[in-house]
């Protein structure tokens, strides 16, 4: 209400902008989420998709060992993809932040250029590279590492590699932003006081870039749980993600209430991750006394 009140006081143009924004969020964000939550409490019906009476059966099914297994497999694959994105993206973002702005802009542009091609097409390209007659096996054979083609495609490694390849920029961008805001004077002061490279890294750089780390992990981990086409194409549907399960419930099994319950569980997980992000931000401000307007 205070937002609307301020918008009304600011003039008709700003009020119109606020109303359009709120309307867009209400129709395309809030309403679909409410529909998903309500559907999760209904009963499945193959003809009408979801019908009364309301029930908690869909949520009870979440605790079935079969679905818990898919959840933990999905959690493992997503965590591994997030870990490798962080391990490779952290030094990459640090190096980019060391360049002057003009060079940094070029490097970031080159990193996001693949985004101009649909991720599904890029996943198909990875599928060709990982095949028994693909580039990866050709390189391994040429280097003498293996004597015959190895099975790369349709494995958990292929799924994790595909997720890392697609989501890597989402890890780097918030990290670069954190490194840009890093006060270099603190590093120089620590060096003058006798701190070695490891101490400067662990006690200054890592804590001050924690919001970027958490934001990057958040942005990578949550989409990784739902990228069902990566698991389908590169994992051969043997390494299912939670997104595969949701897709199958809506499009194959036509059990919309259970699919909605799975979606709600994913939203709850996302809420917990966002809470973790704000806690990390609070930790940095409390420890470092920083006032970062972009992190509020």
Please describe what this structure looks like.
By secondary structure, this protein is mainly alpha-helical. Helices cover 75% and strands 2% of the residues. The chain has 14 helices and 2 strands, in the order ααββαααααααααααα. A two-stranded antiparallel ribbon has the order 1-2. The longest helix is centred in the first third of the chain and has 34 residues. The C terminus is likely disordered.
Supply Rg.
23 Å
Strand order of the largest sheet: 1-2
Q: Look at the structure and give the mean pLDDT.
A: 81
Structural class: mainly alpha
Sketch the major β-sheet. Answer: 2 strands, antiparallel
Number of distinct beta strands? 2
Question: Which percent range describes the beta-strand content?
Answer: under 5%
Along the chain, the helix and strand elements come as: HHEEHHHHHHHHHHHH
Which outline best applies?
A: globular
Low-confidence stretches: 291-296
DSSP summary: helix tally:
14
Helix content: over 70%
Query: Kindly, what is the distance between the CA atoms of the first and last residues, rounded to a whole number of angstroms?
Result: 21 Å
